[in-house]
Write a structure and sequence with these properties.
- Keywords: Signal.
- Helices cover 75% and strands 0% of the residues.
- It is built from nine helices and no strands.
Length: 183
C-alpha cells in the first residue's frame, strides 16, 4: 500500500511524457554572412602560408623541398573551405550581405595565391608539374564550384575581378580554375 503512493505518480508522469510532443528546433537558414565567415577563414589561413612562400623566394631559399609542404598546407586550406561550402548548401542571398561582398572578399585570395605561385614558379623551374601533382588547381576549382553552389552567379563576379591575373593562371596551367572562371 505504501508503494502504491509512489508508483501511481510515476506512472502518471510517464504517461504524460510519452504523449508530449517534442519541441522542434527551428533551424535558421544559412545566409551570405555564413559564406563570408568561410571566406574570412580561408583568407586567414592563406595569409599565414603565402608570406612564407614569398620569404623563401626573396631569400633565394625556394626549392621543391621547401615549397612543397607550404603548397600542401595551401591545398588543405582550400579543401577545408570547399568542404565548408559543400556542407553549407545554398544560402539565402537576401540577408547577411551581397554577392558583391563575397566576390570582393574572395577575388583577392585567388589573386594573392596566383601571384605568389607565379613568383615561386619563377624561382623554382619546373614547378608546374609539382603543382599539378599536389592538386592545387583541383582544390581551387572545387572552392569555386562550392562557392557557386551556395551563391549561384558569384563566380562570374569573381571572374570579372580576376581578369588581370587570368594570364598568370594560364601560365601556371590552372586549366580547371581558368575554365570555371571562364577566363
Amino acid at each position: 500500500m505504501f508503494a502504491s503512493r509512489f508508483i501511481l505518480p510515476v506512472l502518471a508522469f510517464t504517461g504524460l511524457t510519452a504523449f508530449a510532443s517534442p519541441i522542434e528546433i527551428e533551424r535558421r537558414a544559412a545566409d551570405v554572412s555564413n559564406v563570408l565567415d568561410i571566406v574570412s577563414a580561408l583568407q586567414g589561413s592563406t595569409s599565414s602560408i603565402l608570406p612564407q612562400l614569398n620569404t623563401l623566394v626573396s631569400n633565394g631559399q625556394a626549392n621543391t623541398a621547401t615549397v612543397t609542404p607550404l603548397i600542401n598546407q595551401l591545398v588543405t586550406s582550400l579543401n577545408t573551405a570547399s568542404t565548408s561550402f559543400n556542407s553549407l548548401g545554398p544560402v539565402d542571398a537576401s540577408t547577411g550581405g551581397t554577392q558583391e561582398d563575397i566576390a570582393t572578399a574572395f577575388a583577392p585570395i585567388i589573386s594573392e595565391i596566383t601571384i605568389t605561385l607565379a613568383a615561386v614558379e619563377h624561382a623554382v623551374p619546373g614547378l608546374a608539374p609539382l603543382l599539378a601533382t599536389l592538386g592545387i588547381d583541383f582544390a581551387l576549382d572545387q572552392v569555386l564550384l562550392g562557392l557557386d553552389i551556395v551563391l549561384h552567379g558569384v563566380v562570374h563576379l569573381v571572374a570579372v575581378l580576376l581578369v588581370d591575373v587570368g594570364a598568370i593562371l594560364h601560365n601556371l596551367a590552372f586549366v580547371l580554375t581558368v575554365a570555371t572562371l571562364g577566363l
